[in-house]
Amino acid sequence: MNMSSRKRIVAANWKMNLTVGESELLATEMRSVLTTMPRHCEVVLAPSFPALERLVKAVAGLDSVQIAAQDCAPAIRGAHTGEVSSLVLSELGVQKVIIGHSERRINNKEDHLTLKKKVDVALETGLDIIFCCGETTQQRKEGIHMQIIEQQLKDSLLHLTDTQLASVAIAYEPVWAIGTGLTPTSEQIEEMHGYLRALLNRTSAKVGPTLSLLYGGSCNASNAASIFALENVDGGLIGGASLKADEFMRILNSLPQ
Ligand code: PEP
């Protein structure tokens, strides 16, 4: 499969770091780069829930920019106090949702079944998905990181039909690299992305080769170019380094043309 048929995606996960006003300001500061992104590149901004509606408006007319939610409920409607339905996200003009981030798996005890339900309802309500997977330090030390990642995908994602799977991008985010300043070596990243690509190709010979695989975990303006140049890396999911306009714009400009 020719590399150019896979979409390049760089997604900013702002987590709970910005107010609504700060989120809007950051999107506005980045507008000059966002207006000139080449068509095969997609930029995704994921602010916290209350900022979504204003961010959708802030990027209106920018074809290569999408707004993502950082999570959604595992059901579409019902007695789920405090949860946010993907139906409502869709209604606001949100196009994507991040599912399976390790902070939610760990802090909110989200298990494979919950994540599978989130995947299903997100797709049912018309959202695309960035599905996160990643191993802990201990799992890597034990040498079981490949099996862990494969199981995370099998448990929550690989039941999808080809058409559904086509709406998913996968972010490999080793837990030990998130927010720590530690990054795997290029060999380790490519090894995992190659493994994921082979798994996806076995799952669907038609859709597997077209899916975007992102790397996430202490990716910044200094290391993005070398990470994005790897054969099976199609972009990144960026946390801390997406909070400053100039650094995030440098990361966007690190995407191979
Ligand atoms: C993340 O939380 O998705 C992430 C990649 O964070 P950071 O870039 O800060 O490591």
Question: How would you sum up this structure, described in words?
Answer:
- The structure is a single chain.
- The chain has 257 residues and is an alpha/beta fold.
- The chain has one domain (3-252): Aldolase class I (TIM Barrel), CATH 3.20.20.
- 39% of the residues lie in helices and 16% in strands.
- It is built from twelve helices and eight strands.
- It has helices spanning 20-29, 31-35, 52-58, 86-91, 102-107, 112-124, 137-141, 145-156, 162-165, 186-203, 224-228, 245-252, and strands spanning 8-13, 41-46, 65-69, 96-99, 128-133, 168-172, 213-216, 235-238.
- An eight-stranded parallel beta barrel has the order 1-2-3-4-5-6-7-8, surrounded by five helices.
- Helix 1 (20-29) runs parallel beside helix 3 (52-58).
- The longest helix has 18 residues, at 186-203.
- The chain is globular.
- The mean pLDDT is 95.
- Phosphoenolpyruvate is lined by residues 13, 173, 178-179, 216-219, 237-241.
